[in-house]
Amino acid sequence: LNQRIAKVALEKEELDIAAEKESYLAEHCTPLSLPSSLQDLQDLCKKLHAKIDVVDEERYDMEQKVQKSSKELEDLNQKIFDLRGKFKRPPLKRVRMSADAMLRALLGSKHKVNMELRANLKQVKKEDTDKEKDLRDVGDWRKNIEEKSGMEGRKKMFESES
């Protein structure tokens, strides 16, 4: 029920808008009657160009008025600023800034620059190999040499490997 009422109201509103548009156009725009002779057409074009010139002059005058008033507004704002007193600069503090932060401030955040070279290096995990385990287990190398010296030491090496 509400949808039907709303639909009828919308249709009525559209009809009212169309009728209002027609009446406005009939009131303000006279129907166009193009003259048949060449001289009459030239006269009509001259009249239209004269009206265009008048409208352009009014537009130019309005632009000049707007520019003048905006300039006055800027001047008045400057006077207000001057009357309030001079701007006091706060005492600046020294700030310690890293090279990265300085480059980021100068170049903007779009450019990624990193002065710390170690950050660019890859980190590799160290894998424990059998040789390194043996070296760790052996301990002092001099003892190992003494044990393996001579024929008995070499015999022990072959027996331990197999």
TrEMBL record:
Gene3D superfamilies in UniProt: 1.20.5.350, 6.10.250.180
Q: Which GO terms describe its cellular component?
A: troponin complex
Keywords from UniProt, A to Z, are: Acetylation, Actin-binding, Coiled coil, Muscle protein
Q: Which GO terms describe its molecular function?
A: actin binding
Q: Which domain of life is it from?
A: Eukaryota
- List, alphabetically, the SUPFAM superfamilies matched: Troponin coil-coiled subunits
* InterPro entries per record: Troponin, Troponin_I, Troponin_sf
Q: Which GO terms describe its biological process?
A: cardiac muscle contraction; skeletal muscle contraction
Coiled coil: which residue ranges? 38-86
Output the Pfam families linked to this UniProt entry: Troponin
**Record's family?**
Belongs to the troponin I family.
Q: How does it assemble?
A: Binds to actin and tropomyosin. Interacts with TRIM63. Interacts with STK4/MST1.
Q: What does this protein do?
A: Troponin I is the inhibitory subunit of troponin, the thin filament regulatory complex which confers calcium-sensitivity to striated muscle actomyosin ATPase activity.
Q: What is this protein called?
A: Troponin I, cardiac muscle
User: Mind giving the lineage of the organism this protein is from?
Assistant: Eukaryota, Metazoa, Chordata, Craniata, Vertebrata
